[in-house]
Amino acid sequence: MKTPGVVLLLLWSGLVVVAAESGRTNLQDEATVAATTQEKSKPDIHTALREMSALIAEQRVELRYTKTQMEAMETRLRASEDEIMNLQKRNEESKVSFSVSLEPNTNRYTGPFNTGTTLVYKHIITNIGNAYNSNTGFFTAPVKGVYDFSFYIYGQGNSNHMGAHLRRKGTNLVMAYTVLDRGFINSSNGVSVLLEVGDVVDVFLPANHRILDNTNHHSTFRGHLLFHV
């Protein structure tokens, strides 16, 4: 027959074994939960990385699209600036107008001469664009376009003919002419003509012709650009 002390010892040993087993079980359970949690977290990290990669790729596409749009806007802006500059240049070039007379402050005839000569109008009334040269008598077209010209001649009737030609590059376009034995007479003519850049226009006094001018500026030459071509 076992004594009570032995019985108690056996009971205590059994409790220790049960407790140990229970501890091992708890540790195993905790380890299993931790492993399971870790395994579950791995897909979450991969998912987050994939989402971040997709977001970065999307942002890169948006940046490239934005850059393309900005480059297109810069191109249009430069084209607009160039167009504005060209319009400003054409606007400045279109300001071509002159009006001149033969004599600034004297009363005298020009001609007659043995050979024809270009009339040099010395008195500048208007010369916007500076296309008329008062030293040579030539108007030089600064731009291609249609120009309008007119000229007036004045004189006193006698045996000399009074007349002049309007010329382009040395070729007669129109003529003003008159003859009268006595009294003061005048004549005029004009033309609209297409000119290339650098074309010259002048009023040409033929041989044995003469015209008069004075401080009233009867004998004049004028022209202006109508429009570009």
Automatic annotation (TrEMBL):
Highest taxon above the source species: Eukaryota
Classification via InterPro entries: C1q_dom, Cerebellin_Synaptic_Org, Tumour_necrosis_fac-like_dom
Keywords: Coiled coil, Secreted, Signal
Keyword Amino-acid biosynthesis assigned: no
GO cellular component annotations of the record: extracellular region
Domain C1q as annotated: residue spans: 91-229
Species assigned in the record: Clupea harengus (Atlantic herring)
Localization (cell): Secreted
Keyword set includes Transcription regulation: no
Stated name of the protein: Complement C1q-like protein 2 isoform X1
Cited Gene3D superfamilies: 2.60.120.40
SUPFAM superfamilies: TNF-like
Matching Pfam families: C1q
